[in-house]
Every structure is written in structure tokens, then in C-alpha cells.
């Protein structure tokens, strides 16, 4: 039962849009107020000329009101969202080996690679997230982030938290450093940019090409959602790393390309489509025949993707029928807890889930032993059921804050 964001097949932007722009908001209000004064003056002149202007006045004032509402909506008060992509998010995992790939030439002694990531499945002990040709692998091993280069490897201490968005930046130079949600971790001097020829193109991949490692029992790509990596031919400053983790903007200086193409490939190097990126206008996925099911395209709200994040995330899905014990165990796998029938926010989340789908009735297991939360005709309450009964609805509250 994989919780998914709303899927979109249309092109979208992967840029990090700013949040509420107060300056633009005030400017919009100022323009609208000026328009209102001009219309009022116009009506006054018409009244002085003894013209019957009441009908016209009502029409114009109504148009001004609508204009004000439109400008308010356009000013960015709504939570922005951005496009994310997903591989191996299906169940069972890895029904199709998939990765994204593009060519890159390092023209500098320093580089920074940044992206957002939500790990959902780690199907093997060593799950590859990103590779630079076969020279450098960024992975998850034993629930920590690890970088590999030939016989060298280094692990960072903060544990990986599945089902939680995190912003990652790899800073390459005389050593390698990981930035986690804008916080720079311990550098490792065993790997440097010296391994890359500055005239030879390399492949950067999200996921793991099936030809690079034959023993798939040990090494496989991760399963989850991500934003397309952005490659800067410079080391980003600490305040820039924080800005990107907060869905802010940084200087485009050193950004590798204004336009780029990521190929979507599957087992046997079968091409399933391309993602075309323009750093000004966004990204769009152009599938080829037979591409369905290999790449998930979704939109995620900034408040979920970027710091500061909300304290809890709610996973509410529909899938396999489970008893109370099975549901409890499944939720604990994600480090979460079942919902509390007396918690107002828990109940609000359930009601919102029902309303969004236009349903009239729903029942799911609650935290209390063998109690269920029931929604029926806009009413929500808790009732005790037989423990062996099964519900196809799964709701779990997971800690949404990254624990360092």
C-alpha cells in the first residue's frame, strides 16, 4: 500500500518557487486600490452630469472586486508545488529496473549536485541512489548514506528516514561532503574531483544501470521519489545550501546547462522516454510507446518537500485488508503510530481524506486496541470491533522531522 501524491501526466516545472511574496502582494493591492479610486471618480463625474450610472457602477465595482480576488490568488498565497519523479515505487518493488541518465563533463575543480529525495523502498542491503559513471556511487547501506569510489567508501552518521523528504547536496572538490537539509556534514578526503577527466563526458544516473553490477541480490537501485539533480560547477556556500533546502533561490552561476535532457531507461538499456529541462521554464516528460508504469510523475507541496517541515506526516491509503494487529505492525515498520480517535488533527486528516474522494463512509483501525475510527455521512466517531475483522484502509502518523 504505497501512499502516492496526485499523479500528473502534463508538463510541469521542477523549479523551487518562492513562497508568499509580500512585495508583490502589496503591489497588487496598491494597483487594485488605485483602480477603485479611478472608478469612483469616474462615477462621480457621471453623477455630476446627471447620468444614470447605477447599473454601470455596480458592474464596474463587481469587476474590481473580482480583479482584487484574482490578484490575491496570483500573488502566491497558495502553497506552491513542484514536479517530482519516481522509480520503483510500485508493489512489488522492482518489477521493472529503471534509471535516469544524462551526460556530464566536469569543467571545474569543484562541483555541487543537489536534489530532493524521498526513499520509499530499499530492496537490498546496498541501494544505489546516484552514480557518476562507474567512478562514484552515492548509496544507502545499513540505513545510512554512503559514498563509494573504487575500494574507498565513507558513511555519514545521520540515519536514513524512509517516507520523509530530505534535501541532499554532494559537494565535490579536494574532498567530498554531504549537505543534509542545508546542514554540512563531515567531509571525507579519500575521494576528490581528481578522479574525473575534465575533457571526457561521463554518465550521471539517478538509480542504477542494470549492466554495472551483476549480483542484484547485493546491489539494486532505490525505490522512491526525487527531484531532478541540479549540477553546479562550483561549491555552493552554506547559505545557498540552506536556501535550496528551504525551496529558495540561489545564483545560477556555474549551473551546468540552461537546457538538458534526461533519458529514462529500463533493463537492457531500453529507452522509455526523456525528461526535457529548461532552467527557466521547467521540465516535461515525453514518454515513448510502452513507457507506462516505469516512471511516476507527481506534484508535491513545498511544505512537505522543504524545510521547515511539519512535525508529522499522515499516510492514508487503500489496499490489502488487514486486522488490527497487522495494521499496527505495518505502521510500526515506518516508525509511526496509528491514529488516535480523540486527537482533533488526526480526525481532521481522516475527514479531509474522505471529502477529497467524495466518499460517504470509511472505517480504519485506531491506536486503541481493536477500536476503529468510523466516518459516516460527515460524522466521525470511534467504536470497538472484533480484532479479527479486516479493513482495507490504512492510516499511519509518521514523524516528519529528520532526526540528526
How would you characterize the overall build of this protein?
- Helix 1 runs antiparallel to helix 2.
- This protein has three domains: 22-74; 81-305, Sandwich (Jelly Rolls), CATH 2.60.120; 312-399, Mannose-Binding Protein A, subunit A (Mannose-Binding Protein A, Chain A), CATH 3.10.100.
- The chain has helices spanning 22-48, 54-74, 238-245, 302-305, 324-333, 344-357, and strands at 81-87, 98-104, 111-121, 126-132, 136-141, 144-149, 152-159, 165-172, 176-180, 183-184, 202-206, 219-221, 223-226, 230-232, 259-266, 270-278, 282-287, 296-301, 312-322, 336-337, 361-365, 371-376, 379-384, 391-399.
- The protein is α+β, with helices and mostly antiparallel strands.
- Strands 2, 4, 5, 6, 7, 11, 12, 15, 16 and 17 form a ten-stranded mixed β-sheet that branches. Strands 1, 3, 8, 9, 10, 13, 14 and 18 form an eight-stranded antiparallel β-sheet that branches. The protein has a three-stranded antiparallel β-sheet with strand order 19-24-20, sandwiched between helices.
- It is built from six helices and 24 strands.
- The longest helix is centred in the first third of the chain and has 27 residues, at 22-48.
Instruction: Give the domain tally.
Output: 3
**Helical content band:** 10-25%
Based on DSSP secondary structure assignment, what is the total number of beta strands?
24
Topology-level CATH name of the largest domain: Jelly Rolls
Assess the beta-strand content as a share of residues: 35-45%
**The top level CATH class name of the largest domain:** Mainly Beta
| Overall spatial form | elongated
Order of helices and strands: HHEEEEEEEEEEEEEEHEEEEHEHEHEEEE
CATH architecture of the largest domain, by name, is Sandwich
Number of helices: 6
Main beta-sheet annotation: 10 strands, mixed
Amino acid at each position: 500500500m504505497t501512499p502516492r501524491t496526485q499523479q500528473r501526466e502534463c508538463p510541469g516545472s521542477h523549479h523551487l518557487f518562492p513562497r508568499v511574496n509580500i512585495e508583490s502582494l502589496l503591489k497588487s493591492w496598491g494597483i487594485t486600490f488605485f483602480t477603485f479610486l479611478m472608478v469612483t471618480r469616474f462615477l462621480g463625474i457621471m453623477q455630476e452630469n446627471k447620468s444614470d450610472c447605477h447599473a454601470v457602477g455596480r458592474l464596474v465595482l463587481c469587476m474590481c472586486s473580482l480583479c482584487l480576488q484574482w490578484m490575491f490568488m496570483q500573488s502566491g498565497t497558495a502553497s506552491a508545488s513542484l514536479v517530482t519523479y519516481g522509480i520503483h515505487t510500485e508493489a512489488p518493488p522492482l518489477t521493472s529496473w529503471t534509471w535516469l541518465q544524462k551526460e556530464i563533463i566536469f569543467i571545474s575543480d569543484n562541483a555541487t549536485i543537489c536534489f530532493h529525495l524521498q526513499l520509499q523502498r530499499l530492496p537490498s542491503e546496498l541501494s544505489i541512489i546516484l552514480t557518476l559513471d562507474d567512478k562514484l556511487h552515492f548509496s544507502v547501506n545499513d540505513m545510512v548514506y554512503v559514498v563509494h569510489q573504487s575500494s574507498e567508501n565513507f558513511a555519514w552518521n545521520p540515519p536514513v528516514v524512509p517516507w520523509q523528504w530530505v534535501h541532499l547536496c554532494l559537494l565535490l572538490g579536494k574532498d567530498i561532503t554531504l549537505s543534509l537539509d542545508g546542514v554540512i556534514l563531515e567531509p571525507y578526503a579519500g575521494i576528490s574531483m581528481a578522479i574525473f577527466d575534465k575533457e571526457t563526458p561521463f554518465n550521471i544516473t539517478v538509480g542504477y544501470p542494470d549492466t554495472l553490477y551483476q549480483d542484484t541480490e547485493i546491489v539494486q537501485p532505490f525505490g522512491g521519489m526525487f527531484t531532478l539533480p541540479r549540477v553546479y560547477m562550483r561549491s555552493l556556500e552554506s547559505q545557498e545550501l540552506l536556501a535550496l533546502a528551504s525551496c529558495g533561490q540561489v545564483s545560477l552561476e556555474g549551473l551546468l546547462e540552461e537546457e538538458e535532457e534526461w533519458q529514462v531507461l529500463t533493463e537492457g538499456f531500453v529507452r522509455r522516454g526523456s525528461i526535457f529541462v529548461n532552467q527557466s521554464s521547467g521540465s516535461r516528460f515525453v514518454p515513448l510507446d510502452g513507457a507506462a508504469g516505469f516512471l511516476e510523475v507527481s506534484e508535491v507541496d513545498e511544505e512537505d518537500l522543504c524545510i521547515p517541515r511539519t512535525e508529522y506526516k499522515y499516510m492514508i491509503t487503500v489496499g490489502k485488508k488487514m486486522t488490527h494487529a497487522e495494521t499496527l505492525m505495518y505502521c510500526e515498520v515506518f516508525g509511526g503510530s496509528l491514529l488516535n480517535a480523540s486527537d482533533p488533527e488526526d480526525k481532521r486528516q481522516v475527514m479531509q481524506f474522505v471529502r477529497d474522494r467524495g466518499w460517504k463512509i470509511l472505517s480504519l483501525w485506531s491506536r486503541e486496541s481493536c477500536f476503529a475510527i468510523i466516518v459516516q455521512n460527515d460524522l466521525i466517531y470511534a467504536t470497538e470491533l472484533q480484532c479479527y475483522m479486516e479493513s482495507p484502509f490504512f492510516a499511519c502518523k509518521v514523524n516528519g522531522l529528520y532526526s540528526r
